[in-house]
Amino acid sequence: MKQPNEKPTLKTIAQVTGLAAATVSRALNDAADISASTKERVRLAARQVGYRPNRAGLRLRTGKTRVVALVLNIEDEILGIVSPLLSGVAEVLEASEYNLVVIPETPAGDPLKPVMDVINNGMADGIILTRTQPYDLRVKVLTDRDFPFVTYGRTDMKIKHPYIDFDNEAFAYESVRRLAALGRRNLALLAPPPHLMFHRHMSDGFRRGIRDFDCMEMPLGDIDLDTPLQEVFNRGRKHFLSTHRADGIVAGSASASVALLAGLEQAGATIQADFDMVAKEPARFTEWIRPEIIAINEDIRGSGIALARTVLSIAAGHPLQSLQQVLFPSD
C-alpha cells in the first residue's frame, strides 16, 4: 500500500482491487476488452485512493488528454446558467476518467479564440460550446477539423452537428398564454441579444403567442439579457413612467426579471395589480424570493449532464442514437 505522502499509482489501484496493473491501465483507458463492471470497480478504487493520471505522459502515450473544455461566459453570474451547468457536467465527468477545464469568454471578445486555443494547444479531447449563433464559425472550424464537440444551443447552418438545446420558442409561447389567461394584453419581451440563436427562437414563440392570443407587443427599449443589471433596473423605472407601458412581461432569465421588477416597483408599480411577469429560471430562487413572478423552469443541470455524456461518447468514438436533443420547459 502507498505511504502517507506517496502519490497513488496504477500499482496502488492494482493492490486495492487485486487486479494486474496492466488490467487497471486498460480499464482506466476504457479498453473494449475490459468488462463494464471491472471498469467501474477500477474507477471507484481510483477515486478512493485519489489517483490522478499524469496528463503529459498520458498524452504522449495515447494522444489523449482526458480533458473536456467547457467554453462559458461567466460574467454577471446571478441566478444564471454557470453553476447548474457546471454541476451537471461535473457529475458526469466525476464518474469518468475525464477532467474539466473551463475556458472563460466575454460577450465582447472573439468567440473563436477560446476554441482555437484549445485546438492549437492540445488542451482537451472535446469541447462544449454555449451561446450559439445562427451562423457559428466555431461550429464550422470544429467540424472541418473533425474535433469532438457539442453545443448548448442550435444553429441555422447546413452542418449537422451535435447539440442539446432548450425549447425557448415553447417557453415564450407558454409565457404569453399564461399572461393572456390573466387578462394581460400589452406584453413586452426581455429577450437574449439579437446575435444569438435563442433570441430568434424566443422571439418567434413570443410573437406567435401575441398573434394567437390577440395581444399587442410593447417595446422595452434597448436592453437584453446581456445588459448590466443596473441598466435593466433603470429601464424598469423608466418603462413604468412611459405612456406605452406593458401590463405583462416575459423575461428570458431570472436575474433580469428580478432587476426589472425592482425598477418597476421603485417607480410605483405593483406586480399582480399593474402587471404580471413570467420568467425563465434554472432553479426555484424566484419562487422563494419573489413568488409573484410566474416561473418556468429550464433544467440547466440536466442539460449539463446531457452535454457531458454526448461529448464523452463522441470523443470515445461511440455511436449515439441521437446527437441532437431539445429539452422542454417545466413548471
TrEMBL record:
Cited SMART domains: HTH_LACI
Protein name as it appears in the record: LacI family transcriptional regulator
Occurrences of domain HTH lacI-type (ranges): 8-62
Keywords in alphabetical order: DNA-binding, Transcription, Transcription regulation
PROSITE patterns (UniProt xref): HTH_LACI_2 (PS50932)
Coiled-coil boundaries: none
Molecular function, one GO term: transcription cis-regulatory region binding
Domain of life: Bacteria
InterPro entries cross-referenced by the UniProt entry: HTH_LacI, Lambda_DNA-bd_dom_sf, Peripla_BP/Lac1_sug-bd_dom, Peripla_BP_I
